[in-house]
Write a structure and sequence with these properties.
Blueprint lengths: L2 H37 L30 E6 L3 E8 L19 H12 L2
Antiparallel strand pairs: 1-2
InterPro entries: CAD1/NSL1-like
Length: about 120
């Protein structure tokens, strides 16, 4: 191998290591954010001041969760979290329901104008 090929291989390896480290850091940050959100479930908010997760009131929940039975939690966009969470906590993408908007397409506008003009 030439000296240039060796340098290129070393640079690729360094880039792969940096990418791997960044990915690991990102996963850890995501897990921390999700864990904080889940820990705040069932706690009260003081909407007159600040309702960010770090300002949740109290240490205990206002609702009762089954803390004895745990399972890994799948969060869309983040994957399955290793920490076991209560079986009462579920996370999904939600309903994919699209509600009809009040915006009319061109042909409906023409029909509306035609109808109104005869009144």
């Amino acid at each position: 191998r030439s000296h240039e090929q060796t340098n290129q291989a070393a640079m690729r390896e360094n880039n792969n290591n940096a990418t791997s480290t960044e990915t690991t850091k990102m996963k850890m940050m995501n897990e921390i954010v999700i864990a904080r959100a889940i820990d705040s479930l069932g706690k009260g908010f003081d909407l007159t001041s600040d309702f960010r997760l770090k300002y949740c009131k109290g240490t205990e929940r206002l609702i009762l969760l089954n803390e004895d039975q745990n399972k890994p939690l799948f969060v869309p966009g983040f994957g399955t979290l290793a920490n076991p969470f209560s079986i009462d906590i579920k996370c999904d993408k939600g309903d994919n329901t699209r509600y009809q908007s009040d915006v009319l397409d061109f042909s409906q506008v023409i029909l509306y104008i035609f109808f109104v003009s005869f009144l």
